Amino acid sequence: MFDAEAVFTQVRSAWLGPGPNSDIVVSSRIRLARNLVDLPFPSAAGKDALAEVLSRVRRASEHLPEARRYQFLELGRLSPLDRQVLIEKHLISPEHAREPEGRGVVLRDDETVSIMVNEEDHIRLQVLLPGLDLNAAWQLANRLDDSLEQQLDFAFDEKLGFLTACPTNLGSGLRASIMLHLPALVLLNQAGQVFTTLSQLGVVVRGLYGEGTQALGNFFQISNQLTLSQSEEDLISNLLALVGQVLEQERAARSRLYQEFGNRLVDMVWRAYGTLTSARILSGNEAMKLLSDVRLGVTLNLLPHVDLGTLNRLLVLTRPGFIQRVAGQQLPPAERDVRRAAIVREELLGKNK
Q1: pLDDT in tens, 108-126
Q2: Beta-carbon contacts of residue 44 (< 8 Å; ≥ 6 apart)
Q3: Are residues 210 and 277 in the same domain?
Q4: Which of 132, 188, 203, 352 has the fewest C-beta atoms under 10 angstroms from its C-beta?
């Protein structure tokens, strides 16, 4: 049964668990953009049209496979903290939360599926799985898309494919994304060159929360740029091939780091762990930087007692919206920093620390 309150106060998202290549890849995402044939795009829609989209998608979601696992939430009825938590869990976009009235989201109980309603397009269907598992994410997204299409009439052109608000989504409407942790390439000043090469090959590199966001903690999202004139399978295959090369480069960089930096690398990792397990004040940016160093140490077997799953959970637990939502109130930055430090100590050392 769906527990709406748990979405905002607990971290149990399935995509934060173990998956293929999880030493580098945090998650794989498939997102499909769809629009209803007889209503204007959200940016041009009035209140009544937005409400009509909400109503139709709500009814259609009741026919999804395992429909009891899904819950429809209207963003306008959620608090700002609730909306911020959904962003921090990667279940909605910052743009979706910016104008909440007339917007909604359909969530599955394990948070692998979220369907944003009236974001840039009428429907943004997202499947998020742990590790490098794009093909499985596509298979699930495709089944859900077929289910929605049985209930809704999507805007489609025989030549252009699915019609979308942004021309870059025309065609399949598919955006495939991989969230990667690339600390070694950053430390060796190789990341910029890698990203430039990727951009020349039609791949976009973004920050932790997508377009227009920073790459906190050396986490980057890599996704296809265009969707026109290519099948979904080809888009996914091409992205996987490029991501495979990035994985090879990051692993080579990690090996080089270990060989060339030696004790300096070990010291950096253990200093980060020592700070995280003893600090009483931690800012959000400092926590992400230190957690990145610890994560690198875990994958290099320098901190074998630390679990990657715990570090994944801390990607959400240490975010400002989640901290305040659990506290039940808005908190000044100084208080958030104190609570963040306590959360990190508790997760890394145990409940009595």
Answers
A1: 999 999 999 999 999 999 9
A2: none
A3: no
A4: 352
Q: Are residue 63 and residue 155 in the same domain, yes or no?
A: yes
In contact, 327 and 79? CB cutoff 8 Å: no
What is 77-105 written as a DSSP string? GS-HHHHHHHHHTTSS-HHHHHS-TT-EE
How is the beta sheet containing 203-206 ordered, strand by strand?
A: 70-74, 104-108, 113-117, 123-130, 25-34, 174-181, 219-224, 203-206
Domain termination residue (choose one: 253, 270, 304): 253
Kindly report the CATH number assigned to the domain that includes residue 237.
3.30.590.10
Q: Is the pLDDT of residue 352 over 50?
A: no
Domain extent for 321: 262-349
- % helix / strand / coil in the chain, to the nearest 5? 50, 15, 30
Q: What is the DSSP letter of 247?
A: H
d(CA 349, CA 353): 6
Distance CA 91, CA 171 (A): 24
User: Tell me: the pLDDT tens digits for 181-227?
Assistant: 999 999 999 999 999 999 888 888 987 655 555 667 899 999 987 77
Which of 203, 222, 253 represents a domain boundary (last residue)? 253
**Residue 235 and residue 112 in one domain:** yes
Burial degree of 273 (CB within 10 A; 0-12, 13-18, 19+) = buried
User: Rounded to 5 degrees, what angle do the CA atoms 26, 32, 34 make?
Assistant: 155
The yes-or-no verdict on residue 171 having pLDDT over 60 is yes
In this structure, the answer to whether residues 86 and 123 fall within a common structural domain is: yes
Give the model confidence (pLDDT) of 323-345 as tens digits.
999 999 999 999 999 999 999 99
Q: What separation in angstroms does the CA of 254 have from each of 220, 222, 242, 272, 298?
A: 17, 20, 19, 17, 12
Token pair 């590790």 in the structure block, residue = 131
Tally of structural domains, the chain: 2
Query: Do both 160 and 197 map to the same domain?
Result: yes
